[in-house]
Amino acid sequence: MIPTDIGEHEYFHKVVDCQWACPAHTPVPEYIRLIAAGRYSDAYMINWQSNVFPGILGRVCDRPCEPACRRGRLDKEPVAICRLKRVAADLKDDIQDRLPVAPLKRNGRRIACVGAGPASLTVARDLAVLGYQITVFDNGVSPGGMMRSQIPKFRLPDSVIDEECGYIVNLGVETRYNQWVDSLAQLLTEGWDAIFVGTGAPRGRDADVPGRNEAAAHIHIGIDWLANVAFGHTTRISPRVIVLGGGNTAMDCCRSALRMGGEDVKVVVRSGFEEMKASPWEKEDAMHEGIPIINMRVPKEFVHHSGKLVGVLFEIVRAEYDEKGRRSLVPTGEPDILMECDEVLVAIGQENAFPWIEKDIGLEFDKWGLPVLNNMTLQSTLPKVFFGGDSALGPKNIITAVAQGHQAAISIDLFCSGKSLLERPPPMTNLVSQKMGIHEWSYDNQVSEEERKKVPVKSLEKTLKDIKLELEMGFDPYMACSEAERCLNCDIETVFTAKTCIECDSCVDICPTECITFTHNGEEDDLRGRLKAPAKDLEQALYVSDTLKTGRVMVKDENICLHCGMCAERCPTGAWDMQKFLLLAAVAGTEVRRT
Amino acid sequence: MTYFAKPRLLRPDTPRNSLGYTRRDYEGAISTLCAGCGHDSISAAVVQACFDLEIEPHRVAKLSGIGCSSKTPDYFLGNSHGFNTTHGRMPSVLTGAALANRDLLYLGVSGDGDSASIGIGQFAHAMRRGVNMTYIVENNGVYGLTKGQFSATADKGSKSKRGVVNNDTPIDLVALALQLGASYVARSFSGDKEQLIPLIKGAMRHRGPAFIDVISPCVTFNNHAGSTKSYDYVREHNEAVNRLDVILPRDKINASYPPGSLRRVVQHDGSILNLRKLDQDYDPSDRIGAMNHLQERQALGEIVTGLLFVDSSAEELHRHLNTVEKPLNQLGDAYLCPGSKALEALNASLRRS
Question: Per the CB < 8 Å rule, is B2 touching A570?
Answer without folding.
Answer: yes
